[in-house]
Amino acid sequence: MAAAGEELDTAGWFKVLREARALGAAQLGFSGGEPLVRTDLAELVAEARGLGYYTNLITSGVGLNEARVNELHDAGLDHIQISFQSTDSDTSALLSGSEKAFAHKLEMARAVKSAGYPMVLNFVLHRHNIDQVAQILELSEALGADYVELANAQYHGWAHRNRDALMPSREQLQRAEAVTNAYRAANPEGMRLFFVVPDYYEQRPKPCMNGWAKMFLTVTLDGLAMPCHSAR
């Protein structure tokens, strides 16, 4: 484990990957934060491929370009998922702090598809975009998406500090789920949709990550292994 506040170096992550594989881990997700800030990401992907992992990258797409998509593809990355904040540039700029982010995400989604990957899009839903689900599905279909995850915000960290401004009403959540189900019914051979139901309007919370360490393990940048991403 690295010192507090420091990230594991490349060799340190290689050790983590080997140890996890020896324990039986089969799938490796590069998430964050933003994993593209790691200049050695392609090296980590290549090491993971050599160890036999199925690898996926979850990214905002902001630090991505066509050359890097191809580099990751050549290193053996299996899957890229790009996250969106909205279907329009204004809301996206409000939430991401960048007026160029939305257009760049669209460009990178197309680049990922062109590189031979399935197009997997992730829209984080909250009060300011949850009423756009119909438009989100229209945009995803226009982009040629294969899989779309409609992930209701989980309130940890920054989201927890801003939950009064982000949490949708129960009625908004019900409408969004109804729109999603209607699309599924009308398009049985269309995009695969995953509607991640939150637990903040339920009687009891869902187990984190399907139950602590039952299926997933999170390893932080400094090397701490956690049974749930909020355990720290």
What topology does this entry show?
Layout: H1 10-22, E1 27-30, H2 41-51, E2 54-59, H3 66-75, E3 79-84, H4 89-96, H5 101-114, E4 120-125, H6 133-143, E5 147-152, H7 157-161, H8 163-166, H9 170-186, E6 192-196, E7 218-219, E8 225-226
Parallel strand pairs: 1-2, 2-3, 3-4, 4-5, 5-6
Antiparallel strand pairs: 7-8
Helix pairs in contact: 1-2, 2-3
Helix-strand makeup class: alpha/beta
Q: Indicate the overall shape.
A: globular
Which percent range fits the helix content?
40-55%
Order of helices and strands: HEHEHEHHEHEHHHEEE
Order of strands across the widest beta sheet? 1-2-3-4-5-6
Q: What is the count of DSSP helices, taking H or I runs of 4+ residues?
A: 9
Q: Overall mean pLDDT score? A: 90
Strand content is 15-25%
Please tell me about this protein's structure.
α2 (41-51) runs parallel beside α3. β2 (54-59), α3 (66-75) and β3 (79-84) form a beta-alpha-beta unit. The two termini are 15 Å apart. This protein is an alpha/beta fold and 232 residues long. The mean pLDDT is 90. The protein has 9 helices and 8 strands. The strands form 2 sheets. A 6-stranded parallel sheet has the order 1-2-3-4-5-6, with helices on one face.
Structure summarized in a few sentences:
The protein is of the alpha/beta class. It is 40% helix and 16% strand.
Notable features of this structure?
40% helix, 9 helices, two-stranded antiparallel sheet, 8 strands, 232 residues, single chain, alpha/beta
